[in-house]
UniProtKB/TrEMBL annotation:
Ranges that cross the membrane: 7-30
UniProt superkingdom: Bacteria
Lineage: Bacteria, Pseudomonadati, Campylobacterota, Epsilonproteobacteria, Campylobacterales
Organism: Arcobacter suis CECT 7833
Pfam families according to UniProt: DUF748
Record protein name field: DUF748 domain-containing membrane protein
């Protein structure tokens, strides 16, 4: 046998020995040594079913491996573990290469005891946990490659012992990894699938490189039950979560560490469903679905982007009680040791680090409910079915940008049962456009708020407010530090109702359009460029004070308002009111104002007092209408102040005003004033046009005075002028007013003449010169009344009319030119509760008229400088009937009066004195017959005279002769108009020898 043959046989023998040793001996040795070493180094026992080794392919398989404790409880096990080494390729390519590494049916049982210790952490013997010197790292860099790694049907079971046991199972774990290693920097692909507990499926697929580390792939999570994870810390949770709450995730990842740690994440699906939280069997939070359709995370660029986020049917129930708010108690508080404070040292790199960019687009909260119940104060707040949408929210550090925000709230209710206060609104819409928060500067382009209905009901105060379709528009809102500015604010509502049941005040308004321009709030300072109220209509009813007020199409413009601390200034106020109606429902008095054009210039109020530079009232048209009363009772007391009211006025007047007043002139231009009194037998109406006037400055200084001057045209041809000076603080200190009315057509006053004197006025003119002077509450008034061409008309039935023969009174008062000139002085103290100027003047006028009728000769005597006794009768001696010097003295004065007063007549009634004239007749008869008895004593003669018979016809004849002779003297000798002398012949008086004169109308 040659050497080559021997070598061949030796080699074959060695191969046979190697194969036999490898197939038979090595597995036995490996099994024994592996069990021995594991038992020595582990605290638990090890069992291996068998080991297979193929010395030709260098493939090793371990079967039925198991690590178990003393209770025969398996900790780690697997059915098969195989390693297939690629020897030839390793030699050829000079690297370590494995063809396949497979682990089948692996099982890991992780147990955490009550102290928090894991069984796996105690698996090694304590001796192996001692510190050892760290071996020097090999400088060699051996490349390796594993073609395939397979984890087949692995299971991991985790259980936690304690009062609340917890378990987690990772089942059916299947993992395949291709080309793992450093050789040629191969791209490794991997695929992981597993099942978490009963419902959750997780899969991870992708690829990665080790040098430099690169990875990409996709993570899929299906039906991850959130409660199964949270139960791990259930002892810290103070709420219950619905078992159906789950998470679905489809996440793509990309990692590249070539230059930097570049991590990118994005999702195709991110869902949380059926998130229902309860606490003590009370629902706290319900979320049907959170759907984030797009999520992108870029670590290198520090970008986080969310797009198309939907919160569907989010329901929150917040409760406040003595223990606090329920949401604050979701996590149980634990006692934690306070960590020592460390200095916050930031490096320059940290300060200059690139900020994170967070972008949220198309975020929608749909069909949400919010309930807040305050059990302490017994109130609740509910907002149901509201939606919130916002788009393009960008967050960079503390900077925020938002394109749009839309809030739709169809229903909001606030119920304060403790205070009986209830607020509700429907269909609230909030639209926000372009919000920016940069460098602590908030800038909002536009906020639009609208409500279909708002109700405010305060039952305790009997107060109710409701409105429909409120629209509020805010433009360019900006907040910088302590400054808040708004370019424009607009408030519109077609209907606003206010009802104060307690005060019996009801307010209804419509078409409110309020605009505020250039608003600025700087700390406590406020400035506004313009405020405009455009054409609203307001109706107000005050049943307590019997007032109704209505205004239509109001226009109010306030310009340049500045309020700094306690100082307020306004450049101008303009008010235009086309129509304002005021009604006193108790007496039906109505005031109607049209075309009010009011302008106030430069108003200020501050430490220096209240000041207005100038006030203009242009073309006002004001009407006062006194309605007819059903049961009117005129009483002088009605025009007197109640004593209590006077005392109140006194107290108010005596109070010195703390605020200085400086009100500039008030100008009235081209005004119209109308007065109508329907509370008369014939309605009365008069109008003052072309009303112009000026009231000088008004200052509440002790030495200041206010001048006034007003002029106008009364009806068609009359003129009115009022001038004077008043003390601005108290008119009782100083008032000097002169009111002149000229050429007033008094036929318009027929309604008043009919009511108070029972006659119409056909024609006539009236001039008034009224002077009122008050100094230290003492009034001195002069009322000069001149009436010309007065002619009365028909009688008017009126229960309030004075029963006087007015024709006679007028005739007595009127001079030869047909003019009545009356002077009615009035004096008194205005502090007297019984003092009322109107009542005093009316009494003086009535007394004058009464005196003219009841004592005409007293009035005539005062006019002609005669005494009443000189002209009221013509004196005759007994049996005298001829007009002699004594009678002529009286009659000549009567002649003077009759010629001056052609509208009056003298009425003569025959009269004799039965006693005096009768005795004279007896004596005359006795003396004519008994001349021889004259020597008798006086007493005897007197007795004889009285026995004479009185002849009454003779006395009546004398009485008749007296008035006939007076008539002849006046008419024939003095030329008096016969119509002015009236003889009464059908009645003869018997108690006076003198002829008493009566004033009457001519025949």
């Amino acid at each position: 046998m040659t050497k080559l043959g021997k070598l061949f046989y030796v080699l074959c023998f060695l191969i046979i020995v190697y194969i036999a040793f490898g197939f038979k001996v090595v597995p036995i040795v490996l099994k024994d040594q592996l069990i021995k070493n594991l038992d020595e180094n582990l605290t638990q026992k090890t069992d291996i079913g068998k080991i297979e080794f193929n010395p030709l392919t260098l493939k090793i398989i371990i079967h039925d491996f198991k690590i178990f404790d003393s209770n025969d409880l398996t900790t780690i096990s697997f059915k098969e573990f195989s390693v297939d080494f690629s020897l030839l390729r390793s030699i050829k390519q000079q690297n370590i290469r494995f063809k396949d590494i497979t682990l089948k049916d692996a099982f890991v049982n992780v147990i955490q005891d009550k102290d928090g210790n894991l069984n796996l952490s105690n698996l090694l013997n304590p001796s192996l946990n001692e510190e050892t010197q760290e071996e020097e790292k090999s400088s060699s860099n051996i490349e390796f490659l594993v073609s395939k790694i397979t984890l087949d049907n692995a299971n991991i079971q985790y259980s936690k012992e304690g009062e609340i046991p917890y378990s987690l199972d990772l089942k059916n774990i299947n993992y395949t990894l291709y080309d793992l290693g450093t050789y040629k920097n191969s791209l490794s692909s991997n695929d992981l699938k597993l099942k978490l507990n009963e419902y959750t499926n997780i899969s991870i697929g992708g690829a990665f490189k080790l040098q430099p580390l690169k990875a990409y792939g996709k993570v899929l999570v299906e039906d991850l039950r959130i409660k199964e994870l949270l139960t791990y810390k259930k002892d810290l949770l103070n709420f219950d979560l619905d078992e159906k709450a789950n998470l679905n995730l489809e996440l793509n990842y990309n990692l590249d560490t070539t230059t930097n740690f570049d991590l990118k994440l994005n999702t195709n699906k991110f869902e949380i469903n059926n998130l229902n939280l309860t606490q003590n069997k009370t629902a706290l939070l319900n979320l049907e679905k959170l759907d984030i359709k797009t999520f992108a995370f870029d670590l290198q660029n520090q970008d986080i982007n969310f797009d198309n986020i939907d919160f569907n049917n989010l329901k929150a129930n917040m409760i406040l009680n003595k223990e606090g708010i329920n949401f604050a108690k979701l996590i149980k508080q634990t006692n934690t040791k306070e960590e020592p404070k460390t200095e916050n040292l930031t490096t320059k790199e940290e300060i200059e680090s690139k900020p994170w960019n967070v972008n949220l687009s198309n975020v929608r909260l749909n069909n949400n409910d919010f309930i807040f119940t305050d059990k302490i104060n017994n109130n609740s707040t509910q907002s149901k079915n509201f939606n919130i949408n916002f788009n393009n929210l960008k967050i960079v550090n503390s900077d925020i940008d938002l394109d749009t925000l839309v809030v739709n709230n169809p229903n909001f209710n606030f119920n304060d049962n403790k205070n009986d206060l209830f607020i509700s609104s429907k269909n609230t819409n909030i639209n926000l456009d372009k919000l920016s928060l940069k460098n602590n500067i908030l800038d909002i382009n536009k906020i639009d708020i609208s409500k279909d209905n708002l109700n405010f009901n305060d039952k305790k105060s009997n107060f109710n407010l409701n409105t429909k379709k409120i629209d509020v528009l805010v433009k360019n809102l900006k907040i910088v530090d302590t400054k808040t500015s708004i370019e424009d604010i607009t408030l519109k509502t077609p209907n606003l109702n206010f009802d104060d049941i307690k005060s019996k005040i009801k307010l209804e308004s419509s078409n409110i359009n309020l605009n505020v321009n250039s608003f600025l709030l700087d700390k406590e300072d406020i400035s506004i460029k313009d405020i405009k109220l455009i054409k609203p209509s307001i109706n107000m009813k005050d049943k307590t004070n019997n007032i109704e007020l209505s205004a239509k199409d109001i226009q109010l413009h306030i310009n340049n308002i500045v309020n700094k601390k306690d100082d307020l200034s306004i450049n101008s106020i303009k008010l235009f009111e086309p129509k304002l109606d005021f009604l006193n429902t108790s007496d039906k008095t109505k005031i109607v104002a049209k075309n009010l054009d009011l302008e106030i210039k430069k108003l200020s109020n501050g430490k220096n007092g209240f000041k207005i530079d100038k006030t203009n009232l242009n073309k006002p048209d004001v009407s006062i209408i006194l309605a007819k009363k059903e049961n009117q009772i005129e009483n002088e007391d009605n025009i007197k102040l109640d004593s209590k009211e006077v005392e109140t006025v006194k107290k108010e007047d005596n109070k010195s005003s703390k605020t200085k007043l400086d009100i500039g002139p008030v100008n009235i231009k081209n005004g119209i004033f109308s007065f109508e009194d329907k509370n008369l037998p014939i309605p009365f109406k008069t109008t003052v046009t072309k009303l112009n006037g000026k009231i000088s400055e008004f200052k509440n200084k002790k030495s200041s005075t206010t001048n006034l001057e007003v002029k106008g045209v009364v009806d068609e041809y009359g003129v009115a002028k009022i001038t004077g000076v008043v003390h601005p603080n108290n008119i009782k200190l100083l008032t000097d007013i002169n009111m002149i009315f000229s050429n007033i057509a008094i036929q318009n006053f027929t309604p008043y003449s009919g009511k108070f004197v029972g006659r119409e006025i056909k024609s006539g003119k009236l001039d008034l010169d009224l002077k009122y002077n008050i100094e230290k509450s003492n009034l001195e008034a002069k009322n000069n009344i001149v009436i010309s061409k007065l002619e009365l008309g028909e009688k008017i039935e009126s229960p309030d009319a004075v029963s006087l023969p007015l024709d006679i009174a007028i005739a007595l008062l009127r001079d030869s030119n047909g003019i009545i000139d009356i002077n009615l002085p009035v004096s008194g103290n205005v502090d007297d509760p019984q003092f009322a100027i109107g009542s005093i003047i009316w009494k003086a006028f009535v007394n004058l008229m009464t005196k003219a009728v009841t004592a005409p000769f007293s009035l005539l005597g005062s006019m002609f400088n005669f005494s009443e006794d000189e002209i009221k009768s013509v004196r005759f001696d007994p049996l005298e009937d001829e007009v002699g010097p004594i009678q002529k003295e009286t009659l000549d004065k009567i002649v003077q009066i009759l010629k001056a007063r052609s509208e009056i007549a003298i009425e003569l009634s025959p009269s004799y004195d039965e006693t005096k004239d009768g005795y004279a007749q007896q004596k005359q008869n006795y003396l004519a017959r008994k001349d021889d008895d004259r020597n008798l004593k006086k007493e005897e003669i007197e007795a004889l005279i009285l026995k004479e018979k009185i002849k009454i016809p003779n006395l009546e004849k004398i009485a008749q002769n007296r008035i006939i002779n007076i008539n002849n003297y006046l008419i024939k000798e003095k030329g008096i108009n016969p119509k002015q002398v009236i003889l009464i012949t059908n009645k003869i008086g018997n108690n006076n020898s003198s002829i008493n004169l009566n004033v009457t109308k001519p025949k």
